[in-house]
């Protein structure tokens, strides 16, 4: 099966089983999504959703969070991974938003990357989810699933995966494909013990064909 055929089969399958995929992070506005995505690095969305209600109640806007110290924020996020670093990042991010962007979350990659705690993956999530842009955020799930299925070959970094996916995906499906790959990796194509027997992509999956 060619790479193009694998993409066609994967997109057909995902559109059938997940017609309206979306992030599992809870948020009410662009600022809250940005905070949640920063917190979700190497942490589960479930854990992030457990702690953000209290955090957002205390600091509902960039202006409010900009007045907080990392120690203030740490008290609300201590149960996530790397809470010290994330508390510092959130405090710095909020101040940068207020000082540099009037409290508004930027709508372009260059400006987003100036925010503390924001890397390319986080920026792409914001661009895709909030602004509807054709942006592919590559986390561990996307990286793993794309390589297993055969959408990428020999990809060694998130950036090479991003570029390969962007080359082959129809622009109008990039945002959905991001969620499809994440959700498929989270619940079916897991890092350990993937549920191949429950997957409808067996006929198109390079990993399954090699394993069989």
The Cα radius of gyration reads 18 Å
Q: Which stretches of 5+ consecutive residues score pLDDT under 50?
A: none
Number of domains: 2
Give helix and strand order, one letter per element, not per position: HHHHHHHHHHHH
Mind telling me which CATH architecture of the largest domain this is? Answer: Orthogonal Bundle
Main pleated-sheet profile: none
Helix tally equals: 12
- What is the CATH level 1 assignment of the largest domain? Mainly Alpha
CATH superfamily of the largest domain: Hypothetical protein, domain 2
Helix content: 55-70%
Share of residues in strands = under 5%
Number of strands: 0
Q: What integer is the average pLDDT?
A: 96
N-to-C terminal Cα separation, in Å? 16 Å
CATH topology type of the largest domain = Endonuclease III, domain 1
Taken from the alpha-carbon principal axes, the silhouette is: elongated
> Structural class given helices, strands, pairing?
mainly alpha
Describe what you observe in this structure.
The protein is mostly helical. It has two domains: 3-21 and 136-211, Helix-hairpin-Helix base-excision DNA repair enzymes (C-terminal) (Endonuclease Iii, domain 2); 30-129, Hypothetical protein, domain 2 (Endonuclease III, domain 1). It has helices spanning 3-17, 30-40, 45-58, 62-65, 70-77, 83-101, 109-112, 120-129, 140-149, 158-168, 174-187, 206-211. Helix 5 crosses helix 6. The relative contact order is 0.13. The mean pLDDT is 96.
């Amino acid at each position: 099966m060619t790479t193009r055929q694998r993409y066609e089969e994967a997109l057909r399958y995902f559109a059938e089983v997940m017609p309206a995929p979306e992030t599992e992070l809870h948020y009410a506005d662009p600022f809250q999504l940005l905070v949640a995505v920063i917190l979700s690095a190497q942490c589960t969305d479930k854990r992030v959703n457990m702690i953000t209600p209290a955090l957002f109640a205390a600091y509902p806007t960039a202006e409010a969070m900009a007045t907080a110290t990392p120690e203030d924020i740490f008290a609300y996020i201590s149960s996530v991974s790397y809470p010290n670093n994330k508390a510092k990042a959130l405090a710095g991010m909020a101040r940068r938003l207020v000082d540099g962007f009037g409290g508004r979350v930027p709508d372009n990659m260059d400006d987003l990357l100036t925010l503390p705690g924001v890397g390319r993956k986080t920026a792409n999530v914001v661009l895709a989810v909030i602004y509807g842009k054709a942006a592919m955020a590559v986390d561990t799930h996307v990286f793993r699933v794309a390589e297993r299925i055969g959408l990428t070959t020999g990809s060694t970094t998130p950036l090479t995966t991003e570029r390969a996916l962007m080359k082959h995906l129809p622009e109008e499906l990039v945002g959905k494909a991001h969620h499809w790959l994440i959700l498929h990796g989270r619940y079916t194509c897991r890092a350990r013990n993937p549920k191949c027997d429950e997957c409808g992509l067996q006929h198109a999956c390079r990993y399954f064909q090699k394993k069989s």
